[in-house]
Design goal:
The chain is of the alpha/beta class. Helices cover 40% and strands 10% of the residues. The structure holds zinc ion (ZN).
Length: 354
C-alpha cells in the first residue's frame, strides 16, 4: 500500500516528466524519426538499364530530362501525354525529335465528343493519327467509369459494347492499351480518422470518391470484361492494375488474363509495406511487370526505386509526391538479376517495339 505522501510525490515526478511534452501536437506537425540503425545502400545507378514506362513529361524540357536520366541510368522514358488532339500529337513529336532513341509516347484518350454519334469511328481515326506520330500506346484514365457521361447523362460503363471497335482497332495497330482504372482503396472510403491516407486526402479532398455511386471492385470487373472480350489486344494495368492493396486479386487478374501486364508506378508504398508478398509477385510474374514511376523525374526519386528493387534495406522512405501516401515506410525486396533485367527494361521493350 502506498502512503498518501508517496502517491503525491509520484504524481509530482510524472508531472515533471510530461510537463515539457506537447500533448496537443497536431498530426501535421508530427514527424517522428526512426531510431533504427540498419544498413543503407544508396544505389546510384541501376544494375541494368532502366525504361521508365509510366511518366508524364509534357511540361519538362528534353535537355533537363536527359541530364537526369543519364545521371541515374534511365535509358528510355515513356511520356504519357495528358493532352489530346493536335496538342497531344505535338507533344509526341517534340520529344521524339529531341531524342528518338530516348523517348517514346503514349496517347491520351479523348472523350470530348463522346456524345457524338460518330465517336467510335473518330476515336479509331485518332488511334491511326497517334501511330503516324509513333505512339507506342493509348491510355484510358480513371475518368472512364468514374466521371465520363454519355448523351443520356449516365456514367459511361467501361464494358460498354459500343466501344468494342476501339479495342479491336488497337489490336490491329498492335497498340498496347493502358488502363488506369479507379484509384487506391482508401480513396473510396470516407475521409475520416480511420482512413489510412487521411493526410493525403485531407490535402486533396477532390481525390476522394466515397460519394460516387459506383464501387471500386465494380469498376475493376468492368475492366476485366474488356480484357476477356479482346484477347488479341495487349493491356497494361497502370499502378498494379489498381490492386496494390490486394495482391491476391492481382494474382487472379494475371492468372486469368494472359494479355495483361502491369506497371509498378506510384505503388512502391504498397509493395514495400508487404515485401514478402511483393517479392513473391515479381518472382511469379517476371515477364508481366513493368518499371514505371509516375513521379516528376528526379535523381533521388529514381534511386529510391532502385533501393527498393535491388536491396534488402529496411524501413526507409518510399518515393512519393510531396503529400505522401500514408504514414509508413518500406522494405526492399532484392530481386534476382534475371527478374530485375526483365522488370527494368526487357518487358517494356517488347511493348515499345510495335
Ligand atoms: Zn500517371
Amino acid at each position: 500500500m502506498k502512503s498518501p505522501d508517496q502517491s503525491k510525490s509520484e504524481d509530482k515526478f510524472v508531472n515533471m516528466v510530461t510537463a515539457t511534452a506537447d500533448v496537443d501536437l497536431r498530426l501535421s506537425d508530427f514527424h517522428p524519426r526512426s531510431q533504427l540503425k540498419t544498413p543503407v545502400h544508396d544505389i546510384k545507378k541501376p544494375r541494368f538499364p532502366v525504361i521508365d514506362y509510366h511518366n508524364h513529361l509534357d511540361s519538362m524540357e528534353p535537355d533537363e530530362l536527359l541530364r537526369i536520366m543519364d545521371a541515374c541510368g534511365v535509358e528510355h522514358a515513356v511520356n504519357i501525354t495528358m493532352q489530346t488532339g493536335q496538342a497531344g500529337l505535338d507533344a509526341m513529336d517534340r520529344l521524339h525529335h529531341a531524342a528518338r532513341d530516348r523517348f517514346s509516347s503514349i496517347g491520351w484518350m479523348d472523350w470530348s465528343d463522346v456524345t457524338h454519334k460518330d465517336f467510335v469511328s473518330r476515336t479509331c481515326d485518332r488511334l491511326d493519327a497517334m501511330v503516324e506520330h509513333e505512339a507506342c500506346g493509348i491510355k484510358f484514365w480513371k475518368d472512364f467509369g468514374l466521371t465520363v457521361r454519355g448523351a443520356d447523362g449516365e456514367l459511361v460503363r467501361i464494358d460498354d459494347e459500343r466501344f468494342a471497335p476501339i479495342f479491336e482497332k488497337a489490336a490491329q495497330l498492335r497498340l498496347p492499351v493502358m488502363f488506369h482504372t479507379a484509384d487506391p482503396d482508401a480513396f473510396f472510403d470516407p475521409i475520416d480518422a480511420e482512413n489510412e491516407r487521411y493526410e493525403e486526402l485531407a490535402a486533396h479532398p477532390d481525390w476522394g470518391f466515397s460519394t460516387v455511386p459506383v464501387k471500386k471492385r465494380d469498376l475493376l470487373e468492368q475492366r476485366s470484361r474488356i480484357f476477356a472480350r479482346h484477347p488479341a489486344t495487349t493491356f497494361v494495368g497502370a499502378h498494379l492494375a489498381g490492386s496494390g492493396e490486394d495482391l491476391r486479386y492481382l494474382h487472379h487478374l494475371l492468372d486469368t488474363y494472359p494479355n495483361l501486364s502491369v506497371d509498378i508506378s506510384a505503388r512502391t508504398p504498397e509493395l514495400g509495406r508487404q515485401p514478402y508478398s511483393a517479392r513473391e509477385l515479381f518472382l511469379k510474374y517476371p515477364d508481366r511487370i513493368l518499371f514505371g514511376t509516375d513521379l516528376l523525374p528526379e535523381i533521388s526519386m529514381y534511386r529510391l526505386y532502385y533501393r527498393f528493387l535491388e536491396t534488402y534495406d529496411e524501413y526507409f522512405e518510399y518515393p512519393s509526391h510531396a503529400s505522401r501516401q500514408g504514414r509508413w515506410n518500406i522494405c526492399g525486396i532484392s530481386l534476382p538479376d534475371d527478374v530485375l533485367r526483365k522488370v527494368y527494361g526487357d518487358n517494356a521493350l517488347k511493348l515499345l517495339r510495335r
